[in-house]
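Hi all, posting the design record for the shared folder.

TITLE: backbone redesign
STEP: 1 of 1
STRUCTURE INPUT:
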């Protein structure tokens, strides 16, 4: 795209490549309406970078690919993602600002989130930004349903990355991650179905799975229905009710890990990080699901998108005490 600074590649051969928008984050420092707040905290957040950071903390080598503005928020995004041990292929775009997310802690239990990303640098991701050699070399390409909703260029970049991964034999994983503020259910289902069909591993909430199967009610049936579209592994995330999975024709049920919930934003990204980290480590399905449940629970214990994500040592200490996975045959 004209008017951009070429991507800067820091990455060696990664285990995982992911691409998408990471935004600056302004958040309440105490409960109450932002209409009356005197201060906010500054941070970053984005589904793909949340998962990348989670994977890096669990020992994976990860590359995040994205665009940020040539502004101070862009500086913050690149610095913080790199600081968490994630390799960055970042494009500085002087023609558009870094996107912005605002979180209001309205009460001790209620969080409101607003996004200011129309025309952002992240929405200008394009095919030329995809580091094809890294995608070919990686073990996993991880994408979400957010990026294709940002613009046609971003959607084309995701499709291109998936095609490159398929050709190279790189595992493709998709977190549906539907955002109703970005597009309609019908548009999302139409755009994401080919990616579901191409993916090896798919993660979705129950409502997200119903984008493709609106008449299916039970989570286990939703997981099986999604698996029928092509992926060999499907996990339906159920928040406080745990998760169900359909892997190689076998159904699995994983309870949630009980915690005192502070903020659920980012918990789904953390679950994906835990599951994929154990997939990379060669764990069985039970281990993958337990790791996802633990990582998702830890993410809920702090008011942030990713700061509560666990380290590998914490995960290893927890797995022996985790509830077992029920296998349904």
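Okay, here is what came back for every position:
SEQUENCE:
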């Amino acid at each position: 795209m004209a008017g951009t600074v070429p991507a800067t590649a820091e990455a060696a051969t990664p285990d995982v490549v992911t691409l998408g928008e990471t935004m600056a984050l302004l958040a309440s420092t105490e409960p109450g309406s932002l209409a009356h707040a005197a201060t906010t905290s500054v941070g970053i957040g984005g589904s793909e970078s949340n998962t990348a950071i989670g994977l890096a903390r669990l020992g994976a080598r990860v590359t995040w690919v994205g665009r940020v503005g040539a502004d101070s928020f862009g500086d913050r995004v690149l610095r913080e993602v790199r600081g968490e041990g994630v390799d960055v292929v970042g494009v500085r775009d002087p023609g558009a600002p870094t996107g912005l997310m605002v979180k209001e802690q309205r009460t001790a239990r209620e969080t409101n989130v607003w996004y200011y990303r129309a025309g952002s640098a992240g929405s200008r991701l394009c095919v030329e930004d995809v580091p094809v050699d890294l995608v070919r070399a990686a073990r996993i390409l991880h994408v979400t349903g957010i990026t294709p909703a940002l613009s046609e260029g971003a959607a084309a970049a995701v499709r291109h990355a998936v095609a490159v991964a398929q050709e190279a034999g790189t595992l493709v994983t998709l977190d549906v991650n539907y955002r109703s503020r970005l597009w309609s259910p019908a548009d999302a289902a139409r755009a994401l179905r080919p990616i579901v069909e191409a993916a090896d591993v798919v993660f979705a909430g129950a409502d997200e799975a119903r984008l493709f199967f609106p008449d299916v009610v039970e989570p286990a049936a939703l997981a099986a229905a999604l698996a029928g579209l092509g992926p060999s592994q499907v996990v339906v995330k159920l928040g406080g009710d745990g998760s169900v999975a359909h892997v190689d024709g076998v159904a699995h049920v994983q309870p949630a890990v009980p915690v005192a919930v502070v903020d659920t934003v980012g918990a789904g990204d953390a679950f994906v990080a835990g599951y994929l980290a154990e997939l990379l480590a060669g764990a069985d399905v039970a281990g993958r699901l337990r790791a996802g449940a633990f990582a998702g629970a830890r993410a809920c214990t702090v008011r942030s998108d990713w700061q509560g994500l666990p380290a590998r040592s914490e995960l290893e200490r927890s797995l022996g005490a985790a509830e077992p996975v029920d296998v349904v045959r």
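COMMENT: Residues 322-329 have pLDDT under 50 and may be disordered.
Let me know if anyone wants the other runs.
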